[in-house]
Design brief:
31% of the residues lie in helices and 30% in strands. The chain is α+β, with helices and mostly antiparallel strands and 412 residues long. The chain has one domain: FAD/NAD(P)-binding domain (3-Layer(bba) Sandwich), CATH 3.50.50.60. Strands 5, 8, 15, 16, 17, 18, 19, 20 and 23 form a 9-stranded mixed sheet that branches. Strands 10-2-1-14-22-21 form a 6-stranded mixed sheet. A hairpin with a 4-residue loop joins strand 16 and strand 17. Helix 1 runs parallel beside helix 6 and helix 6 packs antiparallel against helix 7. It is globular.
Length: 412
Amino acid sequence: MPTPDAPPPSVPALRPTRLAVIGAGPVGLTLALYAARLWPGVDITVFDARPADKDVSGDPRTLALSLGSIQLLQRLKVWPQDEAQPILQVHVSQAPPTLNGLPLKPELTLSALEQGVPQLGAVLRYGQVVAPLQRAWAAECAAQPQRCHFRLGTAVSALKPVATGGVEVDAGIAETFDLAVIAEGGVFADQARKALAHDYHQTAWVGTVELQSQDVRGTAYERFTRHGPVALLPLPAQPGDAPDHRRAALVWCVPAEDDPVAPLDERQRLLVLGTLLPEAAGRPVALSPLKNFALGLNAERTLVQGRQVRIGNAAQTLHPVAGQGLNLGLRDAFALVHALRDTADMDAALRRVEWARAPDRWSMIAATDFLARSFTWQLPGLPALRGLGIAALQAMPPLKGLIARQMMFGRR
């Protein structure tokens, strides 16, 4: 027994939890930054094969972020408010079919005003999201070098479970971490096939379109056509834009085997696009060169495998019909940090994450998969039935509100 004057016995310092984040895209960097801010007992290393001197700010890919994603990035103080174009309204419509000889013009409108929120979401370029996240993570590493590490230009070649618990990460030198989160996504065509995989045999043509329109800036359009969905995401005005012109990111989905867009020149594409869009969207007057991507579903059955967790496109790559892939990944990151930050039992916490994320994850996988497959079904009257469903939703404000809340915050 120590004497009254003896110092108290020393208590061994708790070893920090070692977390490896593989992928420095928006989902991986958000996870790392959120963990550094909310989880003091964690040592975080972010790996990415991207060269350290590569400028990511100019990446022109377009992203649609939900209000929940915006609020998460605002909390981290990395939301580029001045560069984002708010989505104030979403207009969903069906290219007019007929039912029993009667023309239908089904339309569904979701608005921020109706939902009592400042915006439903926002549109901006990939580089505008990743660049501030990367700067913030680099600053976090400079401020806390003892527990925050950034390894750009370092590809992870293998992950291997460790018998004593944890994961061995091979990035040239093998290191052991308590947990590895894989956040590297990529596009469907380049991915190894996961447990649930389906090629929709559809192509997405993406680019930028200029429209002559009197519509209020900030409206996103989703138009269901016989070939597939056509989406317009509003973009910020540029210097020199005419007052009655609007710019939008275009996602034009068509069958891959009998692609009606590929053989057309720019003028022809403009003419065809003009026949597909709803009148409210305006008349397309200019079109950028378009790039094409194969579309498919590629998803894991489970997010968690031992001490490895997949989030974002590493867990599920979806059809862009709902524009929710990135938002789903950011919600994965948010849930993971909150489950792990105060737990003494990591494995139990990971099981809770799996169960907690299942309703949001599987409802989105099922909804996008159903819609994507429905465009390949050659069933008489199917377009008309889809149109009736859209019109029915417009007539039921409570259900419209439920859909809007799920778009903004996911299924809770």
